[in-house]
Amino acid sequence: MLNKILIGLVVLFIIIQFIRPEKNISSEPSPSHISAHYATPQEVKSILDKSCNDCHSNNTRYPWYASVQPLAWWLNDHVEDGKEEINFDEFMTLPPKKAHHKMEEVGEMVQEDEMPLKSYRLIHRSAELSPQEKTVLTSWAQSTMKTIEQENNLDLKEDGGK
User: Fold this and answer.
1) Which of 43, 59, 100, 162 is 20 to 30 A from 35, comparing alpha carbons?
2) Contacts for 33-36 with beta carbons within 8 Å, 24 or more apart?
3) Which residue range forms the structural domain that includes residue 140?
4) Total of domains in the chain
5) 161 in a structural domain
6) pLDDT of amino acid 13
């Protein structure tokens, strides 16, 4: 009986290897990328690349385990959730108030050590943000928020910025 269960599990494991989520890999740079409109210094781009873009862009660098189910499904779920929160490749498609709020969240999440996720940092040690990198990202987010306010004549005092 135990052998039949074990064989069934092995067969199931093999079958699920053929059910793969679509990979998050874009072939071209997005014209809607945040850096296409807002000042994004090279230092910020480097930080975003090493710590944010795997989940918050249209280009994920996939590790070896992304080809093994059910890990690939779990990873895909994280990427989809991250892109739903903020996708730097599609940032310019957001309405100004929402874009402003998203940049506010970027600063808060980085300062509160909520991003990158702990589970991501455990596997990707290089994604850990130094205090200096946190300051750089937070300052960039605040600067981008001010630019959004100025360009769109936003009055955020009435609704708390949301």
Assistant:
1) 162
2) 33/88, 33/89, 33/90, 33/91, 33/92, 34/88, 34/91, 34/92, 34/144, 35/88, 36/92
3) 42-152
4) 1
5) no
6) 83
Any domain includes 18: no
What CA–CA distance (Å, rounded) separates 124 from 119?
Answer: 9
Instruction: Output the tens digit of pLDDT for each of the chain's 162 residues.
Output: 888 898 988 888 888 888 888 888 887 878 999 999 999 999 999 999 999 999 999 999 988 888 888 888 888 998 999 999 999 999 999 999 999 999 999 999 999 999 999 988 988 899 999 999 999 999 999 999 999 999 998 877 655 545
Q: In this structure, is residue 87 part of a structural domain?
A: yes
The whole-angstrom separation of Cα 60 and Cα 16 is: 22
Q: Render the burial of 13-25: b for 16+ CB within 10 Å, e for the rest.
A: eeeeeeeeeeebe
The encoded tokens of residue 33 equal: 């990328």
Examine residue 3 and state whether it is found in any structural domain, yes or no. Answer: no
Instruction: Provide the sign of the torsion angle of the four alpha carbons 152, 81, 54, 106, taken in this order.
Output: positive
Closest by Cα among 135, 118, 128, 141 to 51: 128
Q: What are phi and psi of 28, to 5 degrees?
A: -135, 155
